[in-house]
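Ticket #4471: structure export looks truncated?
Reporter: QA, pipeline team
Priority: medium

Steps to reproduce: submit the single chain below to the structure queue and open the exported record.
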Amino acid sequence: MYEFSPTDEQELLMEAADQFMDSCGFDEEYFKRCYDEHRVPEEYYAALKETPFGTLGLPEQFGGVPVDQVTMMLVQERFFRRNFPFNTPVLQIKDAQEFGSEEQLRKVTEALKTKAMAFSLGISEPGAGSDSTCIASTATRRDGKVYLNGTKTFITNAAYCPYILFVTRDLDNPNPYAGMTMWFVDASAPGITMSPMQKIGNKSAPICEVYFDNVEVEESDIFGKENNGFMQLVKNFELERISIANQSLGQAEYCYLTALEYAVTREQFGKPISSFQLIQDKLAEMRVKIDNMRFQVLQAAWMKDNGKSTQVESGLAKLYNAREAFEVCDMAIQILGGLGYTEESPVGRVWLDARMNRIGGGTDEIIIKSVGKELAKAEAKRLNRR
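Actual output as written to the record:
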């Protein structure tokens, strides 16, 4: 039986998070302006870095505050439920530590002193989305140099980050999974051009199409091991999916709490709309979904903290939470009525943002495929069947 009652330390951390959000000076108007301008809220992240929350989860050697995964999720949820962004470079530091050279790690840590993120991930291509074996970008060796060519698409924060991890594939390798290589590239290098793309949501994390035309790099720019890019790519899937599931939870909570307050204070036909059975039905269903979503996140985080594989649990958490969060946000819009469908209410923006979580970090369909495969594999092993 899992025990998810917050400890005294966790309660203090969440109270401190509330105090920061109350006093930091950044409000809904600021975040909406960043959103409308399609830009990362840099001023907010700079202020966050001045607190322990900006380095939460990082090793002490990087000035961080090490915490377990459950604590990380509880704090992250606290920010999202109040519609405050929350981002720490935990995964970027971990990747640079494990796969990067000393020089690449230095560049990442130096960039993170002034940026919320050091590098973007150049993986998806026009012909390679969920199926990364179709990556067509190449690395060609010539006269002691390496030249990168290819087109990447839907690259989040490419125009913001000073570096990009560009994934290439050896097209002659008969095993496409064994022929991928990551390259750590300065995003301002000659031969790189970017074209902004317009999203319907998540506009404070703008995306670009990125073109590499004979971009010259060195052998030392390989990130990790040559032809090991796919294994490096999937290593952090579990943590990423738990985090996305938690973001979905926070988004759902924000919309639920907004709708609940509105339902209690909005009067029609001489009484609060919260007294009407159809509204009560929505509020009850929203609450049930949120409680279930929280269990999904905390179970996966607890398992991660206890050294257990969460390949199935992290996938299920992301799949369930992303779907349910969107429904909760949609019900909140219905309760707010016309107000919910205007730009005056942040609920509409959260509704748009929440939809992305069914795509990013692995689409619903890919999650179902991978989880279903693992479930069948485990049952076959139990039955001693091949």
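Status: closed, not a bug. The export was complete when the record was re-opened. Leaving a note from the reviewer for reference: The two ends are 32 Å apart (CA to CA).
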